[in-house]
Amino acid sequence: ETDFNKKDILQGQLPIGLNNSGLKQAKRVAQQLKNDLFDTFFSSDLKRTVQTAQEIQKIIKKEFSAISHLRERGLGKLEGKHKDAAFAALELERGTVFPLHHFWDFDEKPSHAKYEIETKKHMYHRLADFVKMLKNKYADKSVLIVSHGGTIRAL
Questions:
Q1: Model-level pTM greater than 0.85?
Q2: DSSP secondary structure string, 94-154?
Q3: Would you write out the chain's pLDDT as a tens digit for each of its 155 residues?
């Protein structure tokens, strides 16, 4: 958890760190993974996931690679804005049709170009590149991935 999470502010690819609650959550996850065996371990290179990966690393004693392929979708000029303002700017309906935690999954419209948002297609391509790398180098290995909600859902 970050302070932005608590306040419903879009983080996207901003270098936001975990708050105290988020650090406790990372430590709990690390403890839950202590008996699992991983051959390798990757994290997004964004601060909040690197902090989580560092807590896991302390417990599982494996080095991790922090890579940009695993970043959350870039939300351009909407990063740092309240989610309600972003929904309004993008003319998206909030609620059961479009849950708040699926904000990353909206389809771009030409009118969204001014916000400089990473397209879903670009996000999927960078994740596909990561998956190809995994298949080529770690096909028969156990791999831990530390990333973001939208990225994990897209994978």
A1: yes
A2: -SSSS-GGGGGGPPP-GGGGGG-PPPHHHHHHHHHHHHHHHHHHHTTS-EEEE--HHHHHH
A3: 999 999 999 999 999 999 999 999 999 999 999 999 999 999 999 999 999 999 999 999 999 999 999 999 999 999 999 988 998 898 887 665 555 566 777 888 899 999 999 999 999 999 999 999 999 999 999 999 999 999 999 99
